[in-house]
Design goal:
Helix content is about 25%, strand content about 35%. The protein is built from one helix and four strands; from the N terminus they run ββββα. It has one helix at about 55-70; strands spanning about 10, 15-25, 30-40, 50. Strands 1-2-3-4 form a four-stranded antiparallel beta sheet, with helices on one face. The longest helix has 17 residues, at about 55-70.
Length: about 80
Amino acid sequence: MIFTESLFQAIHKSRNILIDLGWYPEGDPKGNFGIELIKNYEWEKPLESINSKDKDEIIEKLELLMLMVEEGDIR
């Protein structure tokens, strides 16, 4: 497993929403996955912040957030 802070990032340009996935703290095998849902690049005020050690749970949450953004359920 790669324990890096930058794992995945997607941007929905027309809604100006960004989904960021990383490992925190970077390089620490005892850390956890983190997802941040950001609107208008306001990193200090995430719409959602999800943390988990469980890879399957993070994949499920990531897919759900991406679907919600695409369908306009998150504004």
